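hiii so um. not sure if this is the right channel but i have a protein structure encoded as tokens and i wanna go backwards to a sequence. like what aa goes where. can anyone help
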């Protein structure tokens, strides 16, 4: 009888109920909240559903030593997490993004690239703020990249500069990507007048297939020579775009923008979610990172909109730019561009800004990778 009782007691000791703490419960609730928001609100479901379920997986309590936790060497989750820790997944994501992206809007209106560059000020603003809050230079650089609204870039940079903060940085970056419409709209309305919101831009010129093929080759050479440390991301981005535009690698392009990016998105989402174990994630630093991430994102959006207003001071009336596309300078493609379109149509239903907003939006993707390369060069 005693043996049965001891066996039951031992079994109970291995269950999640026996090892549960309030911190585990909080993280499981947050994970379920991510899933709920993704399903009910349709906010970045391809990201928030895997991350949310990963949070639930990562916060099931267990006794250490069973080799099942994401931080336990040799466990299945730990092996899958190597793609995040070693930075394998982000370049593969960029390959898929490149194969999906049409750079025509940027090629036809190169001046709009400056908006994407201006929005990166948020990254460096958050870097300075993080330094003042007591983070090291390397940690500050990793936190600042959240302002680019680019999850893969945030993971890539934080894996190099601050791996111990990667979970909080990644979740923060993906959370703000999902909240693009909520955060950006009030800022856009605050910084623009009714007249500015109704500006109609000239239709972009047609772009030839030859230009589309040349762009990724020249774009990569220029950016890689300027920031060699950003080569893994920039190289895969432009290579993916060349696969799309060359016309002779259709199968490879379809694989990159379809099955490959889908599989990597699942792996990166679940493992990042799992990395938010309560004992690692629920710290004062995580709260600071989320606050700094929001600050970075707000500054990036603000700088993009204000920079368009500044550009308009030097533009003829017929060449003026609608400041509502300034928010698209962050690299949340195509969500930020959709926000420009939706807000613009609130004031003029026939004013279609999407094709114009895509130019700074794709420039923001390049810009965030370049910014990551710069930070890595100085802080790595």
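sure thing!! here u go:
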């Amino acid at each position: 009888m005693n043996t049965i009782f001891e066996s039951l007691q031992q079994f109970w000791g291995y269950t999640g109920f026996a090892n549960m703490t309030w911190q585990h419960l909080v993280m499981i609730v947050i994970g379920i909240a991510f899933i709920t928001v993704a399903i009910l609100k349709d906010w970045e479901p391809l990201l928030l559903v895997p991350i949310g379920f990963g949070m639930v997986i990562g916060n099931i309590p267990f006794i250490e030593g069973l080799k099942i936790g994401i931080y336990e060497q040799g466990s299945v989750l730990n092996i899958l997490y190597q793609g995040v820790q070693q930075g394998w997944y982000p370049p593969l994501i960029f390959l898929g993004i490149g194969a999906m992206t049409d750079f025509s809007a940027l090629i036809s209106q190169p001046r709009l690239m400056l908006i994407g560059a201006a929005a990166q000020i948020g990254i460096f603003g958050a870097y300075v703020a993080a330094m003042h809050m007591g983070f090291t230079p390397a940690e500050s650089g990793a936190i600042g990249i959240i302002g680019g609204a680019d999850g893969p870039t945030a993971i890539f940079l934080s894996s190099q500069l601050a791996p111990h903060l990667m979970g909080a940085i990644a979740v923060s970056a993906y959370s703000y990507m999902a909240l693009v419409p909520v955060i950006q709209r009030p800022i856009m309305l605050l910084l623009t007048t009714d007249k500015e919101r109704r500006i109609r831009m000239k239709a972009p010129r047609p772009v030839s297939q030859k230009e589309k093929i040349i762009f990724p080759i020249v774009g990569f050479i220029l950016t890689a020579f300027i920031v060699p440390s950003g080569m893994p991301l920039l190289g895969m981005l432009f290579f993916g775009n060349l696969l799309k535009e060359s016309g002779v690698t259709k199968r490879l392009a379809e694989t990159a923008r379809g099955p490959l990016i889908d599989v990597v998105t699942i792996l990166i989402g679940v493992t990042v979610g799992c990395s938010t174990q309560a004992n690692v994630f629920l710290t004062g630093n995580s709260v600071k990172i989320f606050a700094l991430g929001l600050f970075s994102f707000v500054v990036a959006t603000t700088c993009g909109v204000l920079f368009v207003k500044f550009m308009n001071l030097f533009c003829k009336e017929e060449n003026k730019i609608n400041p509502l596309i300034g928010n698209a300078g962050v690299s949340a493609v195509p969500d930020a561009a959709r926000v420009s379109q939706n807000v613009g149509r609130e004031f003029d239903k026939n004013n279609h800004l999407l094709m114009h907003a895509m130019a700074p939006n794709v420039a923001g993707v390049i810009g965030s990778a370049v910014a990551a390369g710069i930070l890595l060069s100085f802080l790595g």
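oh and The chain has one domain: 85-379.
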